[in-house]
Amino acid sequence: MKLYDLDVSGNCYKVRLLCSLLSVPVDLVPVDFMGGAHKRSPVIDLNAFGQVPVLEDGGLILRDSQAILVYVARKWGAETWLPTDAESMAQIMQWLMVAENEIPRGPGDARLHDKFKMQLDIAVAREKAARILALMNAHLEQRQWLVLDRPTIADIACMPYVALGWEGGVPLDPYPAVAAWVGRIKALPRFIPMPGL
Prior knowledge:
Elements: E1 2-5, H1 10-21, E2 27-30, H2 43-46, E3 54-57, E4 60-63, H3 65-76, H4 86-100, H5 102-116, H6 122-140, H7 153-163, H8 176-186
Parallel strand pairs: 1-2
Antiparallel strand pairs: 1-3, 3-4
Helix pairs in contact: 1-3, 1-7, 4-7, 5-6, 6-8, 7-8
């Protein structure tokens, strides 16, 4: 199994982290993103969107970190990381949508602005970050994990850009329940870090 990877990408890291937690071997293929390798062969041939991560497993090619998390969790994680009962799966999917929408447009965009000098409205990004982090903090004051009584791919999907928010001027100090949740993820057996985390 190959993962076309960028070490500073939170989306790529989600996949690396889940594979590590599940002891699933994966060959990392570094992509020179700044050099535009994601817009050339072989990456563009695998993903016409020109994005990483891309997972190649035999004849299967998958793009989008959330889709890859679903695949890895169902193939190697049994019912633990993505249960198949309707209620649990729906609750996890709700948070995968947050990982695809509110988190990238909040702390993710703030990081893109400050760390990678992307031109965007930093005030809007930080406002969105404050909103989602406040919602997550209230949610996590009542529980240890986003869904169920154990970590799931909902936690893995949401954690990276939340934990990296400090690189965009969005620290977790005002959100102690979120910070404690990040700490619980970091304490999982076979946890691996990424740059900035």
